[in-house]
Design a protein that fits this description.
Layout (H helix, E strand, L loop, with lengths): L6 E5 L11 H9 L2 E4 L2 H10 L6 E3 L5 H13 L4 E4 L12 H9 L3 E5 L4 H9 L6 E6 L4 H10 L6 E6 L4 H12 L5 E5 L7 E5 L1 H10 L8 E5 L4 H6 L3 H8 L5 H12 L3 H12 L1
Parallel strand pairs: 1-4, 1-5, 2-3, 2-4, 6-7
Antiparallel strand pairs: 7-10, 8-9, 8-10
Helix pairs in contact: 3-4, 6-7, 7-8, 10-11, 10-12, 11-12
The chain binds S-adenosylmethionine.
S-adenosylmethionine binds next to helix 5, strand 7, strand 8 and strand 10.
Length: about 280
């Protein structure tokens, strides 16, 4: 890279309310030579709203690799570029990671123009601890795989955050009921900054009741947040393995599996198999 090279600006755009665009985002979108957009039609609408005539180039997950040489050429010839996604901050569950990594490796200047992101907006109103959180992007679309992912997060002490779509929100809350029971608070932030903005908070079962009672609650875009596991409770918790080890020598295997299943909420069938293995 030489000093005449252009810059790639990574520009956040609104997640609904167009009033959330920043002054700096408008200024950069106005002045750059090309705008790399996830969906050129959507970005065209945004630019038109603000009276900006940008030169749009599509850049999404499927063409990032083909575009890199062209992008490098543009920057080398001194052109400046902006990268935007459909909504919010690019790269946050959105395309751009490959381009940003490659350009940084090639020592081009990559500059953030911060602004809205559904993740941060949701956390800011959830009333859950935000000093530490983990962001899981989108969970699997399949219930079995999703439950596995949720089970793996059961002992996570940070607030867990993920994105969810309207097709899957109900199934996802059903899985949350199954995996977390009534142990944790959860918050669902829907349609943030838009007309039907809603924030539902409570135990998974009560949120499922609300969703079942009002199908509008499954419309739109969602950020799901779950309270982290209680660290002290976690440390004092006896594992199913320890329980099986203590009880198996003294009680019938079936009874052991039943007791441990009742105490831990784990599957009786799996515990029975583990207890049998211990006996061997
Ligand atoms: N990069 C974006 C950001 O910074 O928020 C996220 C892009 S991701 C492909 C889209 C997901 O973000 C949606 O499916 C939804 O889970 C969440 N999302 C986006 N806008 C939202 C909004 N206004 N309210 C709630 N969730 C939203």
């Amino acid at each position: 890279m030489d000093s005449q090279s252009g810059t790639l600006y990574v520009v956040a755009t609104p997640i609904g309310n167009l009033g959330d665009i920043t002054q700096r985002a408008l200024q950069i979108l106005q002045q750059v030579d090309r705008i790399l957009a996830e969906d050129t039609r959507r970005t065209h609408q945004l630019l038109t709203h603000f009276g900006i005539k940008g030169s749009l180039v599509s850049l999404h997950d499927h063409n990032e690799r083909q575009r890199i040489e062209q992008i490098e050429e543009w920057l080398q010839s001194g052109l400046s570029l902006a990268l935007v996604s459909d909504a919010g901050t690019p790269l946050i569950s959105d395309p751009g990671y490959f381009i940003v990594r490659e350009l940084r490796e090639r020592e081009f200047s990559v500059v953030p123009i911060p602004g809205p992101s559904a993740l941060v907006a949701a956390l800011s109103v959830a009333g859950l601890p935000t000093n530490r959180f983990c962001f899981e992007g989108f969970l699997s679309s399949k219930s079995t795989a999703r439950k596995k992912q949720l089970l793996a997060l059961k002992d996570e002490t940070r607030t867990v955050v993920f994105y969810e779509s309207s097709h899957r929100i109900k199934g996802c809350v059903e899985d949350l009921c199954e995996v977390f029971g009534d142990e944790r608070e959860m918050v669902i932030a829907r349609e943030l900054t838009k007309q039907f903005e809603t924030v539902l908070a409570g135990k998974p079962a009560s949120i499922l009741d609300l969703i079942n009672a009002d199908s509008n609650q499954t419309r739109g875009e969602f950020v799901v947040m779950i309270q982290g596991a209680d660290k002290e409770l976690l440390e004092s918790k006896v594992s199913s393995h320890q329980l099986l080890k203590e009880l198996t020598p003294h009680l019938p295997t079936k009874l052991v599996a039943q007791i441990v299943a009742n105490l831990t909420g784990e599957s009786k069938k799996d515990l029975y198999a583990k207890a049998l293995e211990m006996k061997l």
